[in-house]
Automatic annotation (TrEMBL):
<keyword id="KW-0732">Signal</keyword>
<comment type="similarity">
    <text>Belongs to the 'GDSL' lipolytic enzyme family.</text>
</comment>
<protein>
    <recommendedName>
        <fullName>GDSL esterase/lipase</fullName>
    </recommendedName>
</protein>
<feature type="signal peptide">
    <location>
        <begin position="1"/>
        <end position="23"/>
    </location>
</feature>
<dbReference type="InterPro" id="IPR036514">
    <property type="entry name" value="SGNH_hydro_sf"/>
</dbReference>
<dbReference type="GO" id="GO:0016788">
    <property type="term" value="F:hydrolase activity, acting on ester bonds"/>
</dbReference>
<keyword id="KW-0325">Glycoprotein</keyword>
<dbReference type="InterPro" id="IPR001087">
    <property type="entry name" value="GDSL"/>
</dbReference>
<dbReference type="Pfam" id="PF00657">
    <property type="entry name" value="Lipase_GDSL"/>
</dbReference>
Length: 315
């Protein structure tokens, strides 16, 4: 059985140059003056690496904030964009490496790739130690280069995403009370539990480093389960897609076109108001959902230890 690859983790390396990240005035500490953020993650936090290396992200991606495709598989900004005070596509000077904040957002691709390879749920669970061994190797490499401050997101409720719901339809009792597919979420929760254990061990291995574990799973599940009360609608339907119950068809991604009478037309277009939707293209969240998630995690309420991102260098 082939081990899942963490290559997207390296391809999504993003540098964000920061003057500083501010914290609330109620804190007893001065905020950390991170001169840069380096992000490692899958396409949920990719600000352009995959698009630059492989296939270009096309319209209508980027329409909400940038007004044009920006390399992000989203209508606008990602959680990492909100974490960073500003985004610039310049590699920071080498001396920033030891002072930077290193953010990780992994798991979704690594877990779901097993299902794409026709693994059973038990087989996918069996890959989790392999994934986390590779994650540990990545942390050790970054530490060896001087990295000391790590802000690590767990993976979200993949069983609530339109591409899972459309591709792997399940029946009760495997569907939970809000409509998500329970076996997929159980795998995500197992991954998260093992990730947290791994971080506990990393703290022992690297006592000079600071590791913050962020429970984005709980925040995203909260958003999806309470969508209408929170001002969103149709949480299981992609905003940008093509057909079906979930407005998702793997053959026609967001922005897909078709030629009719020698004229190219977009057949996977956007919904009327992305700001009211949670899922952008079946795989990724909208800017509005990303902002909502950021607003819940930035102050440390869902972190272990419970410190805001601006204090992620403090013990």
């Amino acid at each position: 059985m082939a081990a899942p690859s963490l290559l997207p983790l390296l391809l999504a390396l993003t540098s964000l140059l920061l003057p500083a990240i501010s914290a609330s005035s109620s804190s007893t500490y001065f905020p950390c003056s991170f001169p840069a953020i380096f992000n490692f993650g899958d396409s949920n936090s990719d600000t352009g690496g995959m698009s630059a290396a492989f296939s270009t992200v096309s319209e209508p991606n980027g329409e909400t904030f940038f007004g044009a495709p920006s390399g992000r598989p989203c209508d606008g900004r990602l959680v990492i964009d909100f974490i960073g005070a500003a985004y610039k596509d310049l590699l920071p000077p080498e001396e920033y490496f030891a002072k930077a904040l290193y953010t990780f957002d992994i798991g979704q691709n690594d877990l779901t790739s097993g299902y794409v390879s026709n693994m059973t749920t038990e087989q996918v669970k069996g890959t989790i130690p392999i994934i986390l061994d590779k994650f540990t190797d990545a942390i050790e490499s970054v530490y060896g280069l001087g990295g000391r401050y790590f802000w690590i997101h767990n993976t979200g409720p993949v069983g609530c995403l339109p591409y899972i719901l459309a591709r792997y339809p399940l029946r009760e009792p495997e569907v939970d009370p809000i409509g998500c597919e329970a076996p997929f979420n159980e795998v995500a929760q197992l991954f998260n539990a093992k990730l947290k254990e791994t971080i506990v061990q990393l703290r022992k291995t690297f006592p000079c480093a600071m590791f913050t574990y962020v429970d984005v799973y709980t925040v995203k599940y909260w958003l999806i389960s309470q969508a209408e009360r929170l001002g969103f609608e149709r949480p299981f339907v992609a905003c940008c897609g093509h057909g079906g119950k979930y407005n998702f068809d793997a053959r026609y991604g967001c922005g897909a076109t078709e030629t009719v009478n020698n004229t190219k037309i977009i057949i996977s277009n956007t919904c009327a108001d992305p700001s009211k939707r949670i899922c952008w293209d079946g795989y990724h969240y909208t800017e509005a959902a990303n902002k909502w998630v950021f607003d819940r995690i930035v102050n440390g309420a869902f972190s272990d230890p419970q410190i805001p991102v601006a204090m992620a260098c403090r013990r």
